[in-house]
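Q&A FORM
Asked by: J.P.
Topic: structure of Sarcosine oxidase subunit beta

PROVIDED:
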Amino acid sequence: MRFSGLRVLREGLTGNKGWKAHWRDPAPKPEYDIVIIGGGGHGLATAYYLAREHGLRNIAVLEKGYLGGGNIGRNTTIVRANYGLPGNSEFYSHSLKLWEGLEQDLNFNVMHSQRGVINLFHSDGQRDAYARRGNAMLNQGDDAILLDRGGVRKMLPYLDFDNGRFPVRGGLYHPRGGTARHDAVAWGYARGADMRGVDLIQNCEVTGIEVKNGAVTGVQTSRGAIRAKKVGIVVAGRSSQVAAMAGMRLPIESHVLQAFVTEGLKPVIDTVVTFGMGHFYISQSDKGGLVFGGDIDMYASYAARGNLPAVEHVMEAGMALMPMIGKARVLRSWGGIMDMSPDGSPIIDKTGIEGLYLNCGWCYGGFKAVPGSGHCFAHLMATGRPHEAAAGFRLDRFRTGFGIMDEEGTGAQHNLH
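REPLIED BY: S.T.
REPLY: Here is the structure written out as C-alpha cells.
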C-alpha cells in the first residue's frame, strides 16, 4: 500500500475503509540470518537498510514491548548536523542528507521540518568557538551562519538579551536543522522494513545470547529460542544489560534525560533554540506545545522517569532565557534512558564475538542520528566493513585511547556529556 494525495482523497470520500495495517504481526521463526535486538528508531532503520540497500530479507527485529516505545518516543525531536569534530561531523552530515530524502524514500510523512537551529553564545570565547565550528561545518559541505546580537534579535526578539549573567551576544544558525515527528519516524521505518519482508516481532524480550566457540549462534527470548548467524544489539540505555548476556562489559553508563511539553499555544517559536550556558533547548511542535529539555539527571539509573532537581534546573534555565514562557502550563514530562559513553560519541562496531555487532553510546544524539545510524550499522552487518561515515566509532578506542572523540572537551566522564 502506497500513500498518495489521490489515495487519501479516495479514502476520505469512502469512509476510510480501505486502509490496511502498516505492518504484519508475525510469530518468530526458528532461525534468521540476522536478528536485531531493539525495535526503536535505530533498530528499525538498520533492518530497513539491510533489506533496501543490501537485499537481505531473512531478518527479525525483536522488541520486548511495542515498536517505538523507547527513546524514539521519548525525545525532543531535534535534527541537526552542527558537529565540529572530525569523525562526528562526517557522520551527522551523512545522517542529515538521509533525513532530507527520508519521506520520499519511505513514502511516509515523518513531518521533517527544516525550521533551523540557533545555538546562542554569551561570551567572546563562545563566539570564537562557534566561529570555528561554523567554518568546520561549511568545510564539511553543510550550512552555517554566524549571527551577531542584532541578527539574533531580528529572529528571536523574545529572548532576554540583557540577562545579567549570560547576555546574548549572538548565535550560530544552522538553517537545514530542525525537527521531525519521532513516532512517525519509527512507524515509517517499520512499515518500510515490513514491506521488504522483515519480521517485526513485538512483546518478545531477549533473555539470553547464545555463544559457542567464540561465535554467536542465536538468542533466547520470552517466545522461545531463535537461531541466528548474526545478532545486532541496538537497545540504547539497556546496552550494558543486553551485552552482559554475551559476557561483555561495556564502557557505558545509563542516565535519565527528561523532557517537557506545554499546553498548545499560537505559533511563537519558529526555530530550535539552544542556550548552551544554561543547557536548555526548546522548539514548538506542530500542535503548538513548547517542547524543551536540559541536563540529564546526574546519577546512573534505569528508571524512565526523572527527578525534581532536574525539573527545577530546566525551568530556571528556560525562564532565564525567555521569560515569556513563564505563564505556559506544563502538561507532561517524560524520561528516556541515555546510554552515555566516556567521550560522548557513539559506538558502531563488531564485538570480539564473531557475528555479534554493537550500536550504542548515543548520549544526547540518538534521534538526529537515526537514519545515519541505521544506514551505517546495516552496512557493517552486511559487509563486515565499517561505513566511511562511521569509521571512527570503534569500540576499542576506550581501551587503547586512540581515536577518542570528545566533542565537548569535557573529558572521560559519562555524565558530563
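FOLLOW-UP: Residues 5-16+23-77+183-251+343-416 form a domain with the FAD/NAD(P)-binding domain fold (CATH 3.50.50.60).
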